[in-house]
Write a structure and sequence with these properties.
About 60% of the residues lie in helices and about 5% in strands. With about 425 residues, the chain is mainly α. The chain has a two-stranded antiparallel ribbon with strand order 1-2. Strand 5 and strand 6 form a beta hairpin. The radius of gyration is 22 Å and the shape is globular.
Length: about 425
């Protein structure tokens, strides 16, 4: 057993609360925002057993997971190396997520052209969400049991506390693998993110069936979501340096987040616009679209600058790039976007999120849940990152914070 660690997320009590509370939140949000109303002040009607769970939905979800698993093993795309582990070894990752997205959309298109009513996914939405929750629990139990079959050097520092509920939530094993498949890397960007796109496309298809054509706000929201997911998968290698891959074990927190929370919460704006079309003018929709483009530009430009700095020594050594040397030998970027704040990519992400919610209007708060959730998530993540870097760099981090004082929004936070 590893030594005691500093607990995050409220410790064991917080972990237990999220293990039990997050599935309830997914179901309640989707029940509260339905075809007839979307209000936190209106207690939703309880679903029938068939609406809540069906074997068909469970089979469909497992089939989708298996389909994405097969696509991940196709020998196309680059093979990237992760950061060095405790052992000094670097794991290899097959980066073909963008190809998996394209093939998934092609299969979806073939089904539509074959007159398959893909809109039945909308009918089975709650049962699919329940299936994702059950599958996440099953996967998390498997991961927890598997983690006791590997050496201690393969465990994540934060998930090896000896407190079962906390370790189950955080994840004990850092990089659980089955054969060539890295389960954490696979789940991080494949079934949930691509599933989010397919759910959105099902809503577009259903809008054609119900209304004759989808309303412009729905089209723009779905297009924005597709761009966001496509960008993440096009730059798939970049995830190998993120906190999720480098620091966190693979347990319930990431498994549930990747497979249940992301697809069935992040699509809430699109589902709302299918069930409650908004009659916005072209001026209003154009203004929101410009805000979304601004957020995406900040998000992509700052991430590209960071990735170029980390991977291209020529870029890192040019006089245009300003850095702060640390005692560890690493350089901290303090110019360009990263001279404005410590997480300018989070700023772009938050702007995009709120622009998507603006398409849903101002009469309902539930479609804004994703935006406020993301704001809280990224603020919390910035605090986690700050604490981690403070331990790693010591006084050098204090100097860095004086040079770049703002965490996310320049002159605000």
């Amino acid at each position: 057993m590893g030594s005691k660690k500093n607990f995050e997320f409220g410790g064991p009590l917080g972990a237990f609360s999220m293990v039990t509370g997050l599935p309830i939140a997914v179901l309640l949000l989707n029940l509260a925002c339905n075809k007839t109303s979307c209000s936190i002040f209106h207690f939703p009607s309880l679903p029938t057993v068939d609406e809540f769970f069906s074997v068909d939905a469970l089979v469909l979800f497992i089939s989708w997971f298996g389909f994405q698993l097969l696509l991940s093993m196709i020998p196309v795309g680059s093979v990237a190396k992760g950061l060095p582990l405790k052992s000094g070894h670097c794991l290899e990752y097959r980066c073909n997520g963008f190809s998996a997205l394209v093939l998934s959309v092609i299969v979806f298109g073939v089904l539509v052209l074959s007159n398959v009513r893909v809109g039945f996914v909308h009918d089975k939405f709650l049962a699919l969400a329940t299936s994702a929750i059950l599958f996440s629990f099953a996967l998390s139990i498997f991961l927890y049991v598997k983690s006791f079959m590997v050496s201690e050097i393969e465990l994540a520092d934060g998930g090896n506390t000896g407190v079962s509920v906390y370790d189950f939530f955080i994840g004990r094993e850092l990089n659980p693998r089955i054969g060539p498949v890295d389960l954490k890397f696979f789940c991080e960007l494949r079934p949930g993110l691509i599933g989010w796109v397919i759910l959105d496309l099902c809503f577009i298809s259903e809008a054609y069936r119900i209304y004759g054509q989808p309303a412009l706000p729905l089209v723009l929201v779905v297009a924005s979501h597709i761009l966001y997911v496509a960008d993440a998968l096009w730059h798939e290698e970049a995830i190998l340096t993120t906190m999720d891959i480098v620091h966190d074990g693979f347990g319930y927190m990431l498994a549930f987040g990747d497979l249940a929370w992301v697809p069935f919460i992040y699509c809430l704006q699109a589902r709302f616009l299918l069930e409650h079309p908004q009659p916005w003018t072209y001026y209003w929709t154009s203004a929101i679209a410009v805000l979304n483009v601004l957020g995406f530009f900040i998000f992509r430009a700052s991430n590209s600058q960071k990735n170029n700095f980390r991977t291209n020594r020529k870029v890192a050594s040019t006089s245009e790039v300003k850095t702060l040397a640390t005692a560890s030998g690493r350089q901290l970027l303090i110019s360009g976007w990263w001279g404005l704040s410590r997480h300018p990519n989070y700023m772009g992400d938050i702007i995009m999120a709120f622009s998507w919610s603006l398409f849903t209007g101002f009469q309902h708060i539930i479609p804004y849940f994703y935006s406020f959730f993301l704001l809280g998530l990224l603020v919390h993540r910035s605090l986690r990152d700050d604490a981690s870097c403070r331990r790693r760099y010591g006084s050098d981090w204090e100097r860095y914070c004086k040079i770049v004082p703002y965490r996310i929004f320049p002159y605000i936070y």
